[in-house]
């Protein structure tokens, strides 16, 4: 465990950030799953609506630094491609 006051503070900050990042990552996983479920259920309107929500959530995670910007772009691209393949 940390001995210095600054190190103790840093440990606390790291713990807070870890929990916040975990919540954001979990939310990203859930919205991705919702889009995939809508595609599997063959509901194009629902899938398109969930895709926009997923894009916003993933972009926010990238903006906060929880996800790398390229990881976020890749996730969004793959979901969009999946949703488009259903309509064609």
The best one-word shape is elongated
Number of helices: 3
Q: SSE order in H/E notation?
A: HHH
Summarize model confidence as the mean pLDDT: 95
**Overall number of strands:** 0
Helix content: over 70%
Give the radius of gyration.
17 Å
Structural class: mainly alpha
> End-to-end distance, in Å?
57 Å
Largest sheet: none
Percentage beta strand? under 5%
Q: Spans of 5+ residues with little confidence (pLDDT < 50)?
A: none
Give an overview in words.
The chain is mostly helical and 88 residues long. Helices cover 86% and strands 0% of the residues. It has three helices and no strands. The protein has helices at 5-40, 44-64, 69-87. α1 (5-40) packs antiparallel against α2 (44-64) and α2 (44-64) packs antiparallel against α3 (69-87). The longest helix has 36 residues, at 5-40. The protein is elongated and about 60 Å long. It starts with a helix and ends with a helix. The mean pLDDT is 95. It comes from Desulfatitalea alkaliphila. GO terms for molecular function: small ribosomal subunit rRNA binding; structural constituent of ribosome. It holds the Pfam family Ribosomal_S20p.
Keywords:
88 residues, mainly alpha
In a nutshell, what does this entry contain?
The chain has about 90 residues and is an all-alpha fold. Helices cover about 85% and strands about 0% of the residues.
